[in-house]
Amino acid sequence: MSSVEKLNKQFAIPGQLRFSAGPAGLPRLTINNRQASAEVLLQGAHLTHWAPVGEQAVIWLSPAAKFATGKSVRGGVPICWPWFGPHAFMPSFPAHGFARTTDWEVTASRQAADGTTGVSLRHAPTEKTREQWPHNTPVELHLTVGGSLDLELVTHNDGPSPVTIGQALHTYFAVGDVRQVQVLGLEDCTYIDKVDGGRRKRQQDSVTIDREVDRVYLGTAGDCVIDDPAGGRRIRIRKRGSHSTVVWNPWQDKARQMGDLGDDGHLRMLCVESCNAADDVVTLAPGGELRLWVSYSLES
C-alpha cells in the first residue's frame, strides 16, 4: 500500500478531504467543503491554496513555482521555523530554518458541524534536523478550512533548557495590483527597513508598495487589513501569539533574479507575515508551549 493510500485509509473524510500525489510526486491533501477549498503539501506542511466558495484564491501561488523534494515552493504559506532569516551563528544553515522543506506527519483530521474541515500535522526532530537544531522542540500545525482560514503553529519545549524560537507564517496573499494596495493597521509602528541597511524607522500612514519592500514591524499584535481595490476586496489578518509583522515584496528587478515569481508576479502578490522575529523572538522555558495563531478572512 502506498503512503497516499495509507493516508486516505486513516485520515480521508469522504466528500471533504483526500490525499493524492501532487507536483513532482509530493504528497498533498485537498479539502473541498461547502465553505472553501484548500491544498496543503505534506512537505513543509505548506498550504498552497485557499479560496472561499465563489471567490478568487486568497493565497497566491506563483505560476512559475518549482516543486522538488527538499526545496521550498514560491508562494502559499511557507513555515519559517525554528529561526527566521539567516541563522544567527551558522550562515551555511538554510534561511528561515528547515520546517518548510522537510516532511510533516498527519496526526488528525476532523469535520465540524459548522461545515469546516480541520487537519493537524506534526514535525518531530530527526537525526538530520538535529544536526542544525539539537533541541527537543516538536512543532505542530493545526489548520481549519472554511469561510475563514485558521492556522495555529504550536511549538513545545520538551528539553531541559530554555530555547529561543524565531518563526513566521510567510503568507503570500493574492492581490489585483500591488501598486494600488494599502496595508492598514501598522500606522505609528517602528520597523526595521532591510532594504535600507536595517535602519529603524516609524511608519507614518498606511503601507503602500511602489518599490522593493522588506520590513519587520515590531511590537505588532493587532489586526492588519490588506485593502485591495483592484481585487475588489479586503483581506483581514487576525493573530495571537505573534509580536511582529513582516511586509515583503521583491519588486521587479529582484523578482527577475529569483526566477520563480513569473513575469509580473510581484504585482500579483504581497507577503504580510505574522512572526516572532528580530527583537520579538521568544524564549521558551522547559516544558513550555508557544502558540502562534492567525485567521484570514475576506471583507467586501
Features:
eight-stranded antiparallel beta sheet, Beta-galactosidase, Chain A, domain 5, nine-stranded antiparallel beta sheet, mainly beta, 23 strands, 8% helix, single chain, 300 residues
What does this molecule look like?
The protein has one domain: Beta-galactosidase, Chain A, domain 5 (Distorted Sandwich). It starts with a helix and ends with a strand. It is globular and about 55 Å long. The mean pLDDT is 96. The protein is built from four helices and 23 strands. It has a nine-stranded antiparallel β-sheet with strand order 6-7-8-9-23-19-18-13-16, with no helix packed on it. Helix content is 8%, strand content 41%. It has 300 residues and is mainly beta.
CATH topology: Beta-galactosidase, Chain A, domain 5
Tell me the Rg in angstroms: 18 Å
Secondary-structure-based class equals mainly beta
| Biggest sheet features | 9 strands, antiparallel
Instruction: Describe the strand arrangement of the main beta sheet, using strand numbers.
Output: 6-7-8-9-23-19-18-13-16
The tally of domains stands at 1
Share of helical residues: under 10%
Mean pLDDT: 96
Strand element count: 23
Unreliable stretches (pLDDT < 50, length at least 5) are none
